[in-house]
């Protein structure tokens, strides 16, 4: 296909605004997918994606479009994920395109992720086609949404905005024509040495790493000697091809095309997203500017529920190949045995991984409370990076601790402002800026990641009755007053329950924690004391009642000697507990999560 007849684009939108539905419509209209093959939401083929209705891993599909001018065009559609945890995947996908459809649900209007995605696209100097979706719904407020779009970008005039229903197909043919007319064709040089961007990858047990590539210059042929420039890795390309939407082998790919190369490389770390692919025979002189790899933001321990460590190990290895933004290192907990300390983009990502472990590998895990990364400076000047609270140094050795702070942008209707600012203050947020975007207010805050990693999002939804949305980006590590909380059950420390908290929150949180543990720690034959310690002092304590009635209380039913024997046994139990033998259920860890 001539470059002038190629269009590479993505669809960007706030979650649930209809990206997948529109992608399906486009594939149906271009007959990429026959009616027989068509089932709901073709691009979302992972079970978790269907359960959550979100797109996790970016996909790409080649379509052929018969335009009104009678000519055929190649439309490469790159699907992007829609959740705040996955901004990284959005940036990766957009790097391979010249333009994007900015899709807005007409019943909801411009939302935080609309704005966040818009900004990423603008940074990449992409051409945007604004589209209002769901105009078939009676609750659609088209005028309001048009005004918001115009506020977002003065180029989005009502005449420029297309109005569609991705569900019924109304207006979608106009979108296909606009892609041809408004988006630029790729501009690479076919006669230059091969230069291609690796923008995603997938691991296949038989073919090794499959690299998703966008050709900038030159040509790519199957069975060619190829080079990854950053990874300094040469290999012989196996098959090459396009996704339509299944893998379709081709003889060659040319400048402007999007497709895949089966590399045969078995180590996925050698094929880095952002790397430049070129040919060994005539390599390009200048590699492309790559992008930053995703950074794990939240960490948690994953332990096998039924002691099946080998199954968990195999599953996390495979998941990491498929999703390199999920990381793992082996760790050992006294309470839980051998497991993994895993890194996630955020807590939603953690939830997705848990479900994928269950759905795709049949592995159920115990998850410890997630934490962020702390940088600790010791009094002797040494620096320690802590991803596991257990490794947080003793307080007497610490000079200073820093934690990650985020810039959080909350977009909301004006009447939610007070409630939202109050919530932000409770979470140690400080206001940086307030701006208007039409009827919406955008509050920019500086807030510790540890404060927004867990429940902040759902609390925000709740105080704003569902109207506020959140977008976050890393700002800097800054000093905070943090302490380590250790939990003893039956006088023995339980390492897996250790967590880090802001000092001022420690008294309240530990009181609530021990109250929660009172009902979740499995009852024993003897009363089980549970206590929380900070800097060597017990600051909260509770006794988990015994399974049986206490001999000392119900003594009159027993003979005096029997009662004495029971009491002896109970206090012996107490003394013996240097190591914990109580098996802890997930509910115990949830007791921390629910604080
Ligand atoms: P995504 O999260 O952006 O991929 O959104 P989906 O494509 O999964 O759509 C979210 C929900 O909105 C689904 O229940 C769709 O059926 C529905 N939906 C999408 N487009 C339309 C539309 O044009 N009209 C109506 N009525 N519903 C739509
Ligand atoms: Mg989707």
Automatic annotation (TrEMBL):
InterPro entries: EF-4 (IPR006297), EFG_III/V (IPR035647), EFG_V-like (IPR000640), EFTu-like_2 (IPR004161), LepA_C_sf (IPR038363), LepA_CTD (IPR013842), LepA_IV (IPR035654), P-loop_NTPase (IPR027417). It comes from the Bacteria. Gene3D superfamilies: 3.30.70.240, Elongation factor 4, C-terminal domain, Elongation Factor G (Translational Gtpase), domain 3, P-loop containing nucleotide triphosphate hydrolases, Translation factors. Residues 4-187 form the Tr-type G domain. It is found in: Cell membrane. Pfam families: EFG_C, GTP_EFTU, GTP_EFTU_D2, LepA_C. This is Elongation factor 4. It comes from Lactiplantibacillus argentoratensis. The lineage of its organism: Bacteria, Bacillati, Bacillota, Bacilli, Lactobacillales.
């Amino acid at each position: 296909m001539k470059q002038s007849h190629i269009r590479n684009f993505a669809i960007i939108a706030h979650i649930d605004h209809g990206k997948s539905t529109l992608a399906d419509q486009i594939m149906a209209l271009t007959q990429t997918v026959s009616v027989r093959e068509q089932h709901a939401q073709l691009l979302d083929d992972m079970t978790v994606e269907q359960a959550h209705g979100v797109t996790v891993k970016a996909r790409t599909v080649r379509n052929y479009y018969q335009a009104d001018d009678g000519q055929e065009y190649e439309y490469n559609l790159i699907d992007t994920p829609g959740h705040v945890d996955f901004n990284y995947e959005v940036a990766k996908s957009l790097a391979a395109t010249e333009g994007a459809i900015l899709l807005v649900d007409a019943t909801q209007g411009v939302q935080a992720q609309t704005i966040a995605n818009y900004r990423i696209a603008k940074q990449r100097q992409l051409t945007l086609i604004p589209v209002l979706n769901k105009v078939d719904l009676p609750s659609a407020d088209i005028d309001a949404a048009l005004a918001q779009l115009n506020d977002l970008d003065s180029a989005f005039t009502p005449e420029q905005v297309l109005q569609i229903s991705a569900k019924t197909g109304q207006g979608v043919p106009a979108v296909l024509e606009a892609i041809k007319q408004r988006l630029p064709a790729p501009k690479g040089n076919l006669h230059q040495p091969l230069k291609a961007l690796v923008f995603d990858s997938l691991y296949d047990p038989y073919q090794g790493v499959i690299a998703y590539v966008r050709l900038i210059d030159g040509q790519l042929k199957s069975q060619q000697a190829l080079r990854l420039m950053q990874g300094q890795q040469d290999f012989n390309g196996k098959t090459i091809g396009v996704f339509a939407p299944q893998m379709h082998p081709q003889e060659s790919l040319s400048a402007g095309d999007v497709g895949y190369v089966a590399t045969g490389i078995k180590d996925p770390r050698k094929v880095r997203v952002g790397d430049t692919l070129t040919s060994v025979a005539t390599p390009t002189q200048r590699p492309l500017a790559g992008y930053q790899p995703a950074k794990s933001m939240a960490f948690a321990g994953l332990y096998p529920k039924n002691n099946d460590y080998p199954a968990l190990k195999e599953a996390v290895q495979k998941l990491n190949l498929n999703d390199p933004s999920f990381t793992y290192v082996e760790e050992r907990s006294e309470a839980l045995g051998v497991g993994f300390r895993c890194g996630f983009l955020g807590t939603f990502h953690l939830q997705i991984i848990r479900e994928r472990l269950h759905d795709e590998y049949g592995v159920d895990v115990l998850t410890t409370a997630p934490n962020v990364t702390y940088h600790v400076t010791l009094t002797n000047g040494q620096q320690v990076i802590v991803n596991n609270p257990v490794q947080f140094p003793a307080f007497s050795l610490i000079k200073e601790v820093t934690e990650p702070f985020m810039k959080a942008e909350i977009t909301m209707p004006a009447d939610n402002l007070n409630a939202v600012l109050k919530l932000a203050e409770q979470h140690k947020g400080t206001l940086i800026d307030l701006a208007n975007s039409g009827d919406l207010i955008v509050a920019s805050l500086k807030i510790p990641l540890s404060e927004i990693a867990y429940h902040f999002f759902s609390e925000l939804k709740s105080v704003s009755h569902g109207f506020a949305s959140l977008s976050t980006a890393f700002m800097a590590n800054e000093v905070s007053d943090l302490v380590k909380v250790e939990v003893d059950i039956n006088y023995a420390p339980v390492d897996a329950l250790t967590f880090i908290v802001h000092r001022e929150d420690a008294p309240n949180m530990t009181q609530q924690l021990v109250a929660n543990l009172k009902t979740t720690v499995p009852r024993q034959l003897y009363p089980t004391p549970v206590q929380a310690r900070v800097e060597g002092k017990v600051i909260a304590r509770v006794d988990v009642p015994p399974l049986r009635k206490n001999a000392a209380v119900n003594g009159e039913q027993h003979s005096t000697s029997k009662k004495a024997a029971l009491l002896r046994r109970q206090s012996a139990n107490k003394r013996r507990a240097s190591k914990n033998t109580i098996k802890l259920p997930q509910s115990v860890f949830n007791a921390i999560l629910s604080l």
